[in-house]
Amino acid sequence: MTMPCDDAGTSKVQRFEVFTGAGQRRDWPPEVKAAIIAESYSKQETVCAVARRHALSPSQLFTWRRQLRKQMAARGVALPVAPNMAPAFVPAIIEEPLSSAPAKRPRKQARAKNSAVELEIDGVAVKIGRGADAGIIAAVIEALRATR
């Protein structure tokens, strides 16, 4: 039995790409790595911004930070933590309204719901409702004219 995916060794190569240049693993000297990690803890900018500036993936920098915390914890040393500021609230100021009467909303104009057009021909009143067919209206008007 032959499956469509079984032709790996029997079919011709359609496309072959060679990647050159960037893509190699970089080896960071410990001093440089330590400086980048320290910079990420400075709280002057985000970890992602520090990583971008050093052409690192943010996940790589977070991994370095996690590894440093584990090494420090294994030695019994904790990283200094910046004190968290207590939450602060902005005071609310409530002002009295200018008038005690509630604001009036502008009313919509009343529309005639029953009819849109009213015709009176020779004492006969015809009320044409909204959405009426134009052909029927023309026929009614012609019938009224014919009876005059």
Brief synopsis:
This protein is 32% helix and 7% strand. With 148 residues, it is mainly α.
Any idea what the CATH architecture of the domain at 25-82 is?
Orthogonal Bundle
Give me the strand/helix succession: HHHEEH
The computed structural class is mainly alpha
Can you summarize the main beta sheet? 2 strands, antiparallel
Radius of gyration: 41 Å
The CATH class assignment of the domain at 25-82 is Mainly Alpha
Quote the average pLDDT: 76
Spatial order of strands in the largest sheet: 1-2
Strand content: 5-15%
Query: How far is the first residue's CA from the last residue's CA?
Result: 92 Å
User: What fold name goes in the CATH topology slot of the domain at 25-82?
Assistant: Arc Repressor Mutant, subunit A
What is the general shape? elongated
Task: Note the total helix count.
Answer: 4
What is the number of strand segments? Answer: 2
Ranges where pLDDT stays below 50 over 5 or more residues in a row are none
Estimate the helix proportion, in percent.
25-40%
